[in-house]
Amino acid sequence: MIMLILGLDLITADLAIDLGTVNTMVYRRGRGIAVSEPSLVAIDEVDDEVVAVGTEALEMKGREAEGVRVIR
């Protein structure tokens, strides 16, 4: 699925991945930055499932529903 989102051909692609504390970035040689998202995950603590990641989780931060926690 991630290959479809990024449009990557992993056989020939040269990638650099930065899993930073604040942002996560994926750079593809010759094409530039393919992904730049906040390093956040929103988790439903009742079901132990991921609710949102990146920008969507950032938008939830400080406004989480009961039982949902946004973590870095």
At a glance:
With 72 residues, this protein is of the alpha+beta class. Helix content is 15%, strand content 43%.
List keywords for this structure.
72 residues, alpha+beta, 2 domains, three-stranded antiparallel β-sheet, 2 helices
Descriptive report:
With 72 residues, this protein is an alpha+beta fold. It has 2 domains: 1-38, no CATH class; 40-72, no CATH class. Helices cover 15% and strands 43% of the residues. It is built from 2 helices and 6 strands, in the order αβββββαβ. The chain has helices spanning 2-6, 55-60, and strands at 15-19, 23-28, 32-38, 41-44, 49-53, 68-71. Strands 1-2-3 form a 3-stranded antiparallel β-sheet. The chain has a 3-stranded antiparallel β-sheet with strand order 5-4-6. Strand 1 and strand 2 (23-28) form a beta hairpin. The protein is elongated, with a radius of gyration of 14 Å. It starts with a helix and ends with a strand. The relative contact order is 0.17.
What's the topology here?
Layout: H1 2-6, E1 15-19, E2 23-28, E3 32-38, E4 41-44, E5 49-53, H2 55-60, E6 68-71
Antiparallel strand pairs: 1-2, 2-3, 4-5, 4-6
Question: What's the main sheet like?
Answer: 3 strands, antiparallel
> DSSP helix count?
2
Number of domains: 2
Q: How would you write the strand order of the largest sheet?
A: 1-2-3
Structural class: alpha+beta
Mean pLDDT: 87
The end-to-end span amounts to: 23 Å
Number-wise, the strands total: 6
Helicity range: 10-25%
Low-confidence stretches: none
Query: Given the C-alpha coordinates, what overall shape results?
Result: elongated
Beta fraction of the residues? 35-45%
Radius of gyration: 14 Å
The topology string of helices and strands comes to: HEEEEEHE
